[in-house]
Each structure stands twice: as C-alpha cells, then as structure tokens.
Amino acid sequence: MDYKKQYERWVKYADEATKKELLALTDEREIEDRFRCSMQFGTGGLRGVLGAGTNRMNIYTVRKATQGYADFVKQQGDTAVNRGVAIAYDNRWGSKEFAENTAGVLAANGIKVYLFESLRPTPELSFAVRELRCFGGVMITASHNPPRYNGYKLYDETGCQLVPRYTDQLIRYIDAVEDELHIACLPLEEAGARIEIIGKEVDERYYQKVRGILFEPDIPKNIKIVFSPQHGTGNVPIRRMLDDLGYAVLPVEEQCAPDPAFSNTKNPNPETEEAFALPLEKAEQAAADLAITTDPDCDRLGVAIRHQGGYVRLTGNQTGAVMLQYILRRRKERGTLPADGLLINTIVTSSLGDEIAASYGVKTEKTLTGFKFIGDKIQTHQTLGDGSFIFGYEESLGYLIGDFVRDKDAVQAAVMLCEMAAYYQNRGKTLYDVLLEIYETYGYYKDCLHAIELEGKDGLLKIQAIMQELRDNPLQEAGGINVRAIEDYLEPQDAAFPKSDVLRYLLEDGSWVAVRPSGTEPKCKFYYCVKGETEEAAQEKLRALQDCFEALAASAMDK
C-alpha cells in the first residue's frame, strides 16, 4: 500500500487526537516520511520519533509490535503464556501509555503480565525477567536519544535483549499483523489477574544483588559525589544505593524530576559534554571528587573526576579500563579470579581492555555492537560451562559486573565506581591517576567516536552511499598507515558473528577503524582506536585517520 493510501486509512480509522494531528499536516514530504514504511526492529528493537504514522512511535505501532510478539509467545506454548512478560518504562513522552498498551494487548491474548507500578531503569527490567522467571520482557525507552524519541525493547527469558536468531523469527510475526488500527487492547481495570502490578519487592531484591558485587561496601568514604539522573529513571535507585552505602551524595536537584521534556539538561546523553554542564557546575561549587550522570533509562554511566583542581571526563573505554583493572586486581588479591575468567566487549571497544585482561590471564571475547550480544555470550558460556564471566563493557558507557542482569547497568557501575574512588583516595590517588598508570604500563591509547547525523529518507541513502563506497573502493592505507586487513561483517569469517553492516579496518601498527550505520539513530558512526608511546603521538595518529575517513565520507555523499 502506498503512503497516501496508508495516510487516508489512518485518517479514517485512528482515534480523534491522531486524526487531528494528521489533518494538520501540510507538507507532503512529511506525510510521505511518516507513512513510507513501517518501523523496523534495529539493534535495540523499535526506536523512532514520536508522532502519528506507520513510521513513527505511537500507540498503534506499539500495539502492532506487541501483537506480533504475543503471537510469537503463544507459538511457544502454554508454559510461555503462563510465565508471562515483565514490562517497565522510563520518563519519556508516551512511555507509560505505551507500557499500558503493551500490557493490554498481551492480556487480550491471554498472556500473563507483570507491569511495574511506575518508571524503572532498564537494568531492573532485565533483572525482573530473571527474578520472576518470565518468558520475556518489554522496556519502553529511547535510552539517551533526544525528547522527541521513544522506543520499545524486547527481552528473552534470560533478561537479555533479543538477538537476531529470535528477532528474525519475531519480525515475521510482526509483519503478519496487517491492521495495526484494530488490535484488541484491554484496559488495565478490565484485565483482572492477567496483569499483576509489581514494585518495591522487586526493587529490594535488585538492590540486594547490586550490593553483593562490591568488594568493600564498608570502606571509609571520604569523597563527595555529585549525581544527575538527567531527569530519568536513575534518580531513585542510585541515590538509594549510595545513601545506604554511606556516601555523601549531592544531587543535581534541577535534573532529578522525571521530566519528559528534559527541561534542565542540554542533552540527556552522558557521552556528551552538554550532559555535564550542571553536574560540573555543582561539582566545582562543592569541590566534589566525582560527578556522575546516567542516561534516562539508567543503563549508561558518565564520569568526571576531580584532578589537579579541575575535572576530567572519562570516555567509556577509559572508565571500562579502570574498572576492569580494579575488579581483576581485587579478585586476584582475594583468590577469587577464576582460571577460565572471561572479559566480553565489542568489536568497537578499545583494545586497551584486552591487554589488561591478558596480563591477568583473562580471555577476551568480542561481539558485535549492542549489549544484547554481550548478554547472549554470558548465557552461552554459562550453559556450556566453558568460561566464567567477570566483566562486560562497551565504549558507549555501558558496563556490567554482576550477571543477575543481562544488559548494561548504570546502577552497578555507579556503586562500583564510587567504591573505586574511595579505595584509591585512601591511597592518595584519583581515578585519573590510576588511568595514567595504566597508560604507562600498557601504552597510550586514544579512542574516539565520530557520528555523522543524516535524517530522513535522503539521510538513509547517504549512509548507504558511504558504506557502499568503502566496500567498492577498499582503502590500501589510511592516515599514512598501511591497511593489514578489512573485516566485513556482512560476510563474517567467524560463524559466531551474525551478519551486520559493519566494516573494520585493521592497520599494520595495531590501530583500527570501524564504520557502521547506527541501528537506533539516523547516524553513520566511525570508531577509532590508536596506540602511541606518548599522548602526542597517539593524538597525531588519530587526527590523520579522522581526516582520511571524514574526507572519504564527504566524497561518497557528494556522488
């Protein structure tokens, strides 16, 4: 059906508020973009701009995805139906409504539902699926995206986001749902026992598990911590955990309310400098030792450390390296470092962590981008009994220590990071001092991510053009360094990797560059990792590689 007929169908059958929004549209290109296709599952499920249309996040696209998911669950048999599905949501526009619609559609299909009473972080949803022995889970969130976005993530029975072997099946069920405008959806008050509201009892079990990851919960705590949840779900769990542990926490009050407009933050993504504007202002006023901030669904943790009178923001690769070394050192001291220890990170994560792990006799396994692949690896090794998970992380500020969650967990990361800061302060060091010691031991690594944002249909074509140019005309050298090999994950050499639109250039000096379209945002992402004997040498290599690939991308988009 072409976009005009889809538009007319929605105007005829959708609810009055949706009709009003559609009839107010005057730009034909906007109408085409809203109805040119149906939303597709990416690396993080559904994620897109809010609004009316088949290519937007709204109750109808949520109901369609849920009906497809319900048909998938029912196909697994009565046990799956009775085990049910846990549902949580964040602070975004429409999140509660989407969660209730998800619950209503599942209940209308006779599937048991466990719905959180109010907003909760993504990692707690993952925990709840495992703790309640559900068949699966749904998290309504757009993670760190701007306010106009929302999303829908699905989890399997292990608490891990669905990986391709499941999403490939699920997509067929979703695509088979022909009429998203007339899907049965029970109001909560009519669902009876099919929908069970959950809350504090699950929270307490989760907090207990988080406390259990620490090495020294009673360590002397002479540090001050500024914390911002960026208006999201991290406010309650992180403040609760740090208060219980006895830390002096100074919340950024302006950013604690769960505001869907994100009124008091320039950007809710902890990877950005803008997210730290207010936290660092408060940290400077209080001479705090740490400023930490989480994204709206509290699965990412950003960190800034007081060092020599100022503040240094760490990248995800740097935080991951410092955290990894602390965990390995403390476990070795205590005799709890397993002989088959396993670090799991991604093909776009810095090689520094791999070197640290190897020095402790710990094996590193790589996955595609997306924490679901890390969670899936954990389960695989647990099932086979051939590796003991110690730590998982990715460059985009995601970390996991205790595998009672199978997604990145900023609550775990926050309490571990604060323990690390207290531990090293008692020894006269900051976390940044520790990072510099790591560089002295393993070499100076410089890593960065550059993303080209390209909205709409034209943007998608430009992203495709960049990837096609890189495949049609493979580079022999980049930034003055010869290319040793090119890994194309559309045709992976390792059967453990599912097909993915990713290219990775391995250079002769050990540097690498990875390029991929984002699965959840209209961006083409370029990841760089270089190693030098000094910071200056590493920076020079990095600059040369960036110039090379940015020029290539500009040329491809102009063709």
Short overview:
The chain is 42% helix and 21% strand.
Describe this entry's structure for a reader:
This protein is an alpha/beta fold and 559 residues long. It is 42% helix and 21% strand. The protein has 19 helices and 21 strands. Helix 1 (3-13) crosses helix 3 (28-35), helix 4 crosses helix 8 and helix 13 (316-334) packs parallel to helix 14 (352-359). The model has no long low-confidence stretch (mean pLDDT 95).
Strand content: 15-25%
| Portion in helices | 40-55%
Question: Which outline best applies?
Answer: globular
Radius of gyration: 23 Å
Largest sheet: 6 strands, mixed
Low-confidence stretches: none
| Global structural class | alpha/beta
- Terminal Cα span: 31 Å
The helix tally amounts to: 19
Pfam families: PGM_PMM_I, PGM_PMM_II, PGM_PMM_III, PGM_PMM_IV
GO molecular function: magnesium ion binding; phosphoglucomutase activity; phosphopentomutase activity
Keywords: Isomerase, Magnesium, Metal-binding, Phosphoprotein
Cofactor: Mg(2+)
Supply the key terms.
alpha/beta, 6-stranded antiparallel β-sheet, 42% helix, magnesium ion binding, 6-stranded mixed β-sheet, 559 residues, magnesium, phosphoprotein
